[in-house]
Amino acid sequence: MPSVSRRLTLFLLVFLAPIGISYAADESVLVKGWLQKMIKAEHSASYRGTFVYRHQNEMVVMNIIRAKGDHGMMAYLSAQNGAPGEVIRNPHYVQCIIPNSDTPLQSDNPQVANNAVKSLNDRIDEISLYYQLTLAEVSRIAGRTSQQLVITPLDQHRYGYRMWIDQQSGILLKSEHLAINGDVLEQMIYSNIEFFGERIPADVQLMLDELNERMTPDKRLLDEQPSNSHDAHQWVVQFIPTGFELASYRRSTNPRQLPFEHIVFSDGLAAVSIFIEKQTENGAFNGVSQHGAMNAYFAANDDYQVVVIGEVPLGTLELIGKSVHYSAVNSH
User: Fold this and answer.
1) What SS3 class is residue 286?
2) pLDDT, position 254
3) What domains, with CATH codes, occur in the chain?
4) Over the Cα atoms of the chain, what is R_g?
5) pLDDT (0 to 100) of residue 21
């Protein structure tokens, strides 16, 4: 009888183990397919809806309108509770209206706003090298059938994700950032959503026209492109987790503000931004900041202020920040 058990065990190991491996591989391919569908929807789907952002005891309700107009895909977000605020965005420009401020915040580098989506699209085949990709159950979000994806990091330098993607449109209806221990750091979930199809409602078109008139970008800033030439880099980042690659390196010489350098790394899902500028008269700030999955590390580096921001663990940002140093060899 023991020999039969051993033969049965050997049979299971030889014939069933490869099935498991094959299934895992196929599952990874399916998850990548869903992610590609989500990326495509972000560039093509027009809709309006309401979503809720939750972080610890904080809850913000946002209305969103996304529609394709004469200037490409435009998005308008407005806060429905707490302090008023809104964001207007098109492929070339981002403008934020924040509480208690008469001056809108304007993006002086519109390409940075698209780095995350571009990186995911370009590097989707590499994601499984740094994350375990799993298909979970099908459920209903905002009255629509959605497919859940579970994305688990393979090291301690990244957060995990749960995503619920609308089966029909590909729009992300719910997402969660997960800490290393599995705790939910922040959550976004739609309560309702209405897709427009080929025809945009008249009231939405009227709003888009009004928003376009409100957006007054500085043409000098929009013409200024980021530098990706390694010869122009004055700052070097000695430590960056495996899988994170340089997405953008830009030196700003905008006369309206202090010169700064902005470096962006991404692994396709997560992005880390490093800002370096001369210290002000008040000196540099040293410390950390945490808000949901978004963390920041602040440190002085000689006469410069270094700020590292990203949706990765604080320990990762600290390792990156401490490795930043000036390189006279690369400067001109």
Assistant:
1) coil
2) 61
3) 17-214 (2.50.20.10), 226-330 (3.30.200.100)
4) 23
5) 42
